[in-house]
Design a protein that fits this description.
CATH superfamily: Aldolase class I
Number of strands: 8
Bound molecules: pyridoxine-5'-phosphate
Order of helices and strands: EHHEHEHEHEHEHHEHEHH
CATH architecture: Alpha-Beta Barrel
Shape: globular
């Protein structure tokens, strides 16, 4: 079964636009789970422009499913994750000023750095995932870091899906099969939506988890959050 983790950063973005507490991020996390999400993802960025560090602390106790915290492993981020102890941490090579994640790790270049951080999280009972592209070298070096999982950066799949879906998915199938052969779990995320999710799932049915934010929260404006989560879940059913 491929789990759906809902990234609730966009809810915080709307809240932050007015400075109050509407919409309520904590209630959104509770409701996403009630509506069928298999997990909640948050991505606190250094400037806290979406999810704030204080949100992460408040959300942890209401998680009944799986909590995934993703972000660049700065000293502050590492300290936050170690204090919250989520089920999973996803390490992302975000530049400080990136609008959104726009690449996976160069796991060869950063192998020593990642190995040390992965080891620290795993020692504390936190599952680790490294955000990577489809290059075989990056996946092999990810495996050598000791990480439990990788998260495939699916933007290149999403952007080519409408012109040539089989060619768009092919490198992801190869990457996922390599990762599986190396004993890694596989997550996927970025720009997944109601058009492209089913095809990805049909081609790589052994993905452990997809993490989806932007399109899902945008769809919820028209379809409602409960209905939207159910529609995404349906794309992941066989
Ligand atoms: N995975 C990672 C590592 C991300 O940084 C993001 C965006 O915050 C996502 C998944 C979700 O991407 P999207 O918002 O396009 O669904």
């Amino acid at each position: 079964m491929t789990k759906l983790s809902v990234n609730i950063n966009k809810i915080a973005t709307i809240r932050n636009a007015r400075g109050g507490n509407v919409p309520n991020v904590l209630n959104a996390a509770i409701n996403c789970q009630v509506f069928g999400a298999d997990g909640i993802t948050v991505h606190p960025r250094p400037d806290q422009r979406h999810i704030r560090y204080s949100d992460v602390l408040e959300i942890k106790p209401i998680i009944k499913t799986e909590f995934n915290i993703e972000g660049y492993p700065s000293a502050e981020f590492i300290a936050l994750v170690l204090s919250v102890k989520p089920h999973q941490v996803t390490l992302v090579p975000d530049a400080h000023d990136a609008i959104t994640s726009n690449a996976g790790w160069d796991t060869g270049r950063y192998r020593a750095f990642l190995t040390e951080i992965v080891g620290e999280f795993r020692k504390n009972g936190i599952r680790t995932s490294l955000f990577v592209g489809t290059s075989a070298t990056d996946i092999e070096n990810a495996a050598l870091s000791g990480t439990d999982r990788i998260e495939l950066y699916t933007e290149p799949y999403a952007s080519s899906f409408s012109t040539d879906a089989p060619s768009a998915v092919a490198p992801f199938v190869r990457a996922a099969e390599l990762a599986r052969s190396l004993g890694l779990g596989i997550n996927a995320g970025h720009d997944l939506n109601l058009d492209n999710l089913r095809f990805l799932h049909e081609n790589i049915p052994f993905i452990d988890e997809v993490s989806i934010g932007h399109a899902l929260i945008s769809d919820a404006l028209y379809l409602g959050l409960e209905n939207t989560i159910q529609l995404y879940k349906r794309q992941l059913s066989r």
